[in-house]
């Protein structure tokens, strides 16, 4: 069953964050990930619980693939770049 990593990102250091984007994408793809949204135009229609900033959605073949990517040794140093240059909320959601 398909799974999605959904990240809301408030970028604090755009120049440094570009390095994260460059490094994260091929690692996600190695784990079967496919970016389907990456910070494009967004219109928030309701925000009772959450006001998103910049949404990234990466589709994976299944939950295990998404988890393997998120917890991989290869991604760990890249994740530190993200965490040092942005505030994020990240969730893995099972699809259909």
Principal-axis shape:
globular
What topology, given as strand order, has the largest sheet? 2-3-1-4
Question: What does the main sheet amount to?
Answer: 4 strands, antiparallel
The residue ranges in which pLDDT falls below 50 over 5 or more consecutive positions are: none
Order of helices and strands: EHEEHHE
First and last CA, distance: 6 Å
CATH topology: Alpha-Beta Plaits
Helix share bin? 25-40%
Mean pLDDT: 97
Alpha plus pi helix count = 3
Task: Tell how many strands the DSSP assignment holds.
Answer: 4
Strand content: 25-35%
Query: Could you say which structural class the secondary elements and strand pairing correspond to?
Result: alpha+beta
CATH architecture: 2-Layer Sandwich
What is the CATH first-level class name? Alpha Beta
Whole-number radius of gyration?
13 Å
Number of domains: 1
Q: Could you write a compact summary of the structure shown?
A:
This protein is α+β, with helices and mostly antiparallel strands and 96 residues long.
Give an account of the 3D structure.
This protein is an alpha+beta fold. The protein has one domain: Alpha-Beta Plaits. The chain has helices at about 15-30, 65-70, 75-85; strands spanning about 5-10, 35-40, 55-60, 85-95.
Produce the secondary structure layout:
Blueprint: E1 3-11, H1 14-30, E2 34-38, E3 55-60, H2 63-70, H3 76-85, E4 86-94
Helix pairs in contact: 1-3
Which key phrases capture this entry?
four-stranded antiparallel β-sheet; 4 strands; alpha+beta; globular; 96 residues
